[in-house]
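Problem 12. The chain below contains 215 residues. Write out its predicted structure in token notation.
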Amino acid sequence: MSQPDNTLHIAMVEDHPVVIEGLRRILAQEMPHATLLEFHTGDAFLQHLRGAQHVVTLALLDITLPDTNGVELCQKVKSQSPDTCVLGFSNHNDRALIMQMLSSGASGYLLKNVSARELMQCVREALSGQMAFSDEIKKIIAKPSAAQVKAVPPLTKREKQILRLIADGKTSADIAAELLVSPFTIETHRRNLMQKFDVNNAAALIRLAAQLQLI
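Solution.
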């Protein structure tokens, strides 16, 4: 059974103001006594959770944030605050990514094109302890998994930027100078990218990124 509205603390972790505004309007209308919180980065949300009195009942997590991705953030949120219910909220409808979110502890996943009715149905299902999926996501996860197809790994905006610069043939020093960061930082991003794509060198990284239409 779900909690009374006046005990709910719902967090919207999203970096697009227009999406936040839409969510806030719908949630405020449907759950007028709930406390609504907004965060534009994953780190800001995690910092909030570290506060002793900062309990979050449910979090709607965007999958692509300026400083992290939804899968990694979900893992950290559930580790730091196991009782917080997490729903993936994204434009990404990749089945592998959806399954990664669920494996990371999410209680459901919905697309940003949902109606207000469907959004609130998912929120209420999650709050009552059920797994919650928008209709389109239900159809996607019902399909057989294409095990042979390489999944697109979730990337931060910075990783996408660096990936494109690597594809342009730029060295770590070139990229560091362009982005005004240290070469060590770029090398760290390179290693992270190769780990996420499960490759051993830049050539394989570029080739796979091209196959996945990321560059």
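Discussion. The longest helix spans residues 183-197. Students who got a different answer should revisit the alignment rule from Section 12.3.
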